[in-house]
């Protein structure tokens, strides 16, 4: 009889242990699973505040209503389970319409966003680390964003090189070229000006593009406001031709 009671008690203890293990296992699985989707901020100031408090970079999806590839990236890249699992908690995510939201319009102008999709990577002060300026699938997107931290060619590291060597012509020129590649004439211009100031005799051969950049930034940056003549609208290509002929360069139209 006592043996039967002992076996019964043993069975109850074993059952309790198994239930506890199942409960703890389920809880543990829930913790490991992590977020099921990306949490988007819709206010720029809130994203900046979080980035500073949490010491994270901001991934800012700059979109328009008409951009079909933006919608594809929402679904295929930002909705991908691996992207969510790997990146959702590592960054502050911001989504802004560049045509209907005040912050979106301001950032579109500040960062010269002319193509979509464009995803800006920003630091806690709102400075651009770099950008993704085309559709990328999940794996490509993760690899690209993660490369910005260490890449010497990222905008953040080019800017860092200028801070560390403010009188370096190659450093200034590399930053200016990067900004020019992004069509950001307003920010490229002072960097080219500094190159000319440091090397007025063009000993390092880096100042010859300045005249063309100056012309471009003054004449063709506002492509949505074409100049007019008695014969009609002056095309972008015609204005560009005037620019590079006056500057004596063959700088391509961006």
Q: Describe it for me?
A:
With 254 residues, this protein is an alpha/beta fold. The protein has two domains: 40-147, Glutaredoxin (3-Layer(aba) Sandwich); 155-247, Serine Threonine Protein Phosphatase 5, Tetratricopeptide repeat (Alpha Horseshoe), CATH 1.25.40. The protein has eleven helices and seven strands. The strands form two sheets. It has a five-stranded mixed β-sheet, sandwiched between helices. A two-stranded antiparallel sheet has the order 6-7. A hairpin with a 5-residue loop joins strand 4 (118-122) and strand 5 (128-132). Helix 7 packs antiparallel against helix 8 and helix 10 (210-219) packs antiparallel against helix 11 (236-247). The protein is elongated, with a radius of gyration of 27 Å. The relative contact order is 0.08.
Summary keywords:
254 residues; alpha/beta; Glutaredoxin; Serine Threonine Protein Phosphatase 5, Tetratricopeptide repeat; 2 domains; 5-stranded mixed sheet; two-stranded antiparallel sheet; 11 helices; 7 strands; 54% helix; disordered C terminus
Give the structure's gist in a few sentences.
The protein has 254 residues and is of the alpha/beta class.
List the helices and strands and how they pair.
Blueprint lengths: L1 H32 L6 E2 L2 H11 L2 E7 L4 H9 L4 H7 L3 E7 L4 H9 L7 E5 L5 E5 L5 H10 L7 H10 L4 H13 L3 H14 L11 H10 L8 E2 L2 E2 L2 H12 L7
Parallel strand pairs: 1-3, 2-3
Antiparallel strand pairs: 2-4, 4-5, 6-7
Helix pairs in contact: 7-8, 8-9, 9-10, 10-11
